[in-house]
Amino acid sequence: MSRRTMVARHMPHRELAPSVVDGYPPSALCVECGGQCCKKLPGCAHPEDFNNADEGAIRTALKSGKWVIDWCGEDDLYFLRPATVHGEAIFDPSFGGTCVLLTPKGCSLDFDQRPRGCRMLEPRPLEIGCTTDYGKPEAIRDWAPYYDMLDRVGHEVLEVREGVLL
Question: How far, in whole angstroms, is CA 70 from its chain's centroid?
């Protein structure tokens, strides 16, 4: 077992209440705030968001330019999330930015197609701020079995992209 897998497996685990496993659908509060959460940083994806980390689905998503591999810490603890508006990298550990899926009318994805971190975002008044039960620590833990595959597929897509750019 690699060091990064061991580190990720020791990340805190929070159980979700059965009533919120499917998430919090957008509410009037979302319209009122105008997607402030989406303007700060995209939500984290779960392997189930990609057919249980299906390599083909991940490759297609990365090729689209709308998804990136993010990581946390010096151990390259990988997870997937939507890209940010000004980001063009396949591997993008950015600390903020507007989600590429945000439109003037809200998210371009149907609710059930959004990353788990977005579906689990609980709308709250603007002065309090939204909260989520699925952030980087949970995504890192859940993607741990797929780190090597994410690294390989990410570099394959990057090589193709760089070959096209040359």
Answer: 8
